[in-house]
Amino acid sequence: MSDRNKLLPLAKASRKHEKTTNNHPATIRRWADAGLVRDGKRFTLAVEFIGGRLFTSLAAIDEFLVAINAKPGETLAPRSLAQRNKASERAEAELIHRGA
Length: 100
Prior knowledge:
By secondary structure, this protein is of the alpha+beta class. The protein has one domain (3-98). Helices cover 46% and strands 15% of the residues. The protein has four helices and five strands. It has helices at 10-16, 25-33, 58-69, 81-98; strands at residues 8-9, 36-38, 41-43, 48-50, 53-56. A three-stranded antiparallel β-sheet has the order 1-5-4. The protein has a two-stranded antiparallel sheet with strand order 2-3. The protein is globular, with a radius of gyration of 16 Å. InterPro entries: DUF1580.
């Protein structure tokens, strides 16, 4: 089992995921319980109930974030670290060019 598929308690998963470190664990719990409605469709975070506690994986958080952030009729794949770095460098160069 890869590290991204390893089950973690919700609070720990929210701290370990690179895109959710600023989210309160209650937000992650809300994603699991009520989910979010987008374009008339409800998306919920995949969780497992084990021994009275809720667990999820980093991969499940990835899938949830991709689903809720996709344009209508589109499925987005998460960008790789190299793609994010390249986009960041382009944005920085553009700001420098504009004198910001």
